[in-house]
């Protein structure tokens, strides 16, 4: 089944994003949560790829194990950071050997301590170049790329950002998954802009439930995502972790229901390797 076909049937396809744990105990806990998340019939799981390729081996270990446990397709993130074309090809070769189905093709953030992205000698500068590499040499992979409802923090303006996204799609991307956002109006505006720009692949919203306000503020600041004042006020009104968890999950649930009503082809959840928030917000939600 092709990647794009998951989003062309009736209903709302869901997927979950993981990150590679640092310890064996962490991997064991993650796999327990993966089994619980599987109960919601996701279409696939993805796993992030550490800065500069620092989790290269662990990322592949995680997605391979997730595929063995769930029997579902899996995707590995891959960035251009710190890698030559030859090294990227080596990674893709290994991913292919291990049965990985899809690649989330990203430029990647500048290394820690630097403000601008610099390609290594013999490397790639942009995500569309990575998409082109995969399409030309590894045709069996489905390819996901990132979109930014509130504009990428390095983009000069929204039009430039959208032009960059179109280059990635024109290079061969199958699906766009968005950066997290907390106001659905931002996503709907972005989706309309994509259609106007001639981007016809599925546009899948990415949702990260706010379960800890300090953590959410840190993550949102990193990707320049705005947290609505109503949600901020509710979170600031309590120091109770359980209360903040409920407020955040309720907001993500409302986002989910509204997105489904507005005909999104799927929703990608950033679950931070846990299952409790996803279980709460998806409980009883009609995805069909």
Describe the overall structure:
One of its GO terms (molecular function) is FAD binding. Keywords: Amino-acid biosynthesis, FAD, Flavoprotein, Methionine biosynthesis, NAD, Oxidoreductase. Belongs to the methylenetetrahydrofolate reductase family. With 288 residues, the protein is α/β, with parallel strands linked by helices. The chain has one domain: TIM Barrel (Alpha-Beta Barrel), CATH 3.20.20.220. Helices cover 44% and strands 15% of the residues. The longest helix is centred in the C-terminal third of the chain and has 21 residues, at 241-261. It starts with 12 loop residues before the first strand and ends in a 6-residue tail after the last helix. The relative contact order is 0.14. The model has no long low-confidence stretch (mean pLDDT 91).
What is the spatial order of strands in the main beta sheet? Answer: 1-2-3-4-5-6-7-8
SSE run:
EHEHEHEHEHEHEHHHEH
What's the CATH class, please?
A: Alpha Beta
Kindly report the average pLDDT value.
91
Q: What would you call the quaternary organization?
A: single chain
Which CATH architecture is right? Answer: Alpha-Beta Barrel
The number of domains is 1
Roughly how much helix do the residues carry, as a percent range? 40-55%
CATH topology: TIM Barrel
Strand content: 5-15%
Low-confidence stretches: none
